[in-house]
Design goal:
With 188 residues, this protein is of the alpha/beta class. It folds into two domains: 51 residues, 4-hydroxybutyrate coenzyme  like domains (Transcription Regulator spoIIAA); 124 residues, Acetyl-CoA hydrolase/transferase C-terminal domain (Glutaconate Coenzyme A-transferase), CATH 3.40.1080.20. It is 29% helix and 21% strand. The strands form five sheets. It has a four-stranded mixed β-sheet with strand order 3-8-12-13. Strands 5-4-11 form a three-stranded mixed β-sheet, with helices on one face. A two-stranded parallel ribbon has the order 1-2. Helix 2 links the parallel strand 1 and strand 2. Helix 6 runs antiparallel to helix 7. The longest helix has 13 residues. It is elongated and about 60 Å long. The termini are far apart. It is an enzyme of class 2 (transferase).
Amino acid sequence: MVELIECGAVTNLRKSLHRSKSITTFAYGTKRVYDYLNDNVGVEFHSVSYVNDPAVIAQNDFFMSVNSCIEVDLWGQVASESIGTRHFSGTGGQTDFVRGAILSKGGRSFIGMPSTAKGGEVSRINPTLKRGAIVSTSKNDVDCIVTEYGVAQLRGCTARQRAANLIAVAHPKFREQLAFEASKINLV
């Protein structure tokens, strides 16, 4: 963030709450990052319960949340913590920021991922999540899923529209199989 702030890409001038301030709950980085943060009136530290509160987040109009995930199913359920029962990470603030963006006037939430894993051999968009996968973000909260093939709008869509939109941003070599699998679970 330091580089983005210093080059003017991040100004915080459009924020409705904490205008001109970068808000965080913790920082981790190099000596340069710590030197930047030291006595910087443009950065405020607050508790996690405040920073990650969807009601606080939503006070910033046009709030955009950007998160990542490991896998998404054709219903729109997002797994960001595990592949099946193999745990990789915590949720962090993903659910809070997704919900805050949805509540924000004009807000949007984007969850991005590469369309494949294992060198292109495995699709990260699947008919269902792997058995035992942790659902990090409910299908009811997901706004958009982004891959290198585009943006799948899910919010406000029927289950069948969601599946079609997700198949459209899957890697092309998996689309036909995903459509076939979607038909088996009544999503086509």
